[in-house]
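hey can u run this one w/ copper (II) ion bound, need the structure tokens asap thx
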Amino acid sequence: MTLRRLAATLLLGALAAAPAHAGSIIEVMHPWARPTIPNRPGVAYFGIHNHGATADRLIGARAAGVGKIELHQATQTDGIMSMAPVDALEIPAGGMAHLGPGGFHLMMFGIDPPLKAGDTLEMILIFESAGEVAITVPVSKTMGEPKHHGEGHQHGATGN
Ligand SMILES: [Cu+2]
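ok here u go:
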């Protein structure tokens, strides 16, 4: 009995110590960033799917070659577009969140060197529960599918 309990305890311990595969709980879809010009901020967009049983929140991001990344929300009031930093973006359990033109986006400051179409940017997204999730962000003038993701792959939703 004691041995079985010990074995069960060890098994639980092993499960608890297993590395968290954040990428399998948080799935980032169709990331892209616009090309930038020197000394101007850039933007990055993507969709986030939360496969977990609890809500999570995107609370930060960083990337080599980028001084600072802020989460922003663009809003339109009386036809005037403005944007402001927000602390976090919630992704509901089993749900999605979208970053896209006219809505939430990552604002990148201090980009050196500037991003050119065809470049890729290695970025770390920081989630409150899932922790750090590494993504590769293609630089493109439009949301059009990056070639290396294969032709004919469909968007499940548009990020407006
Ligand atoms: Cu912004």
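The two ends are 60 Å apart (CA to CA). anyway lmk if its weird
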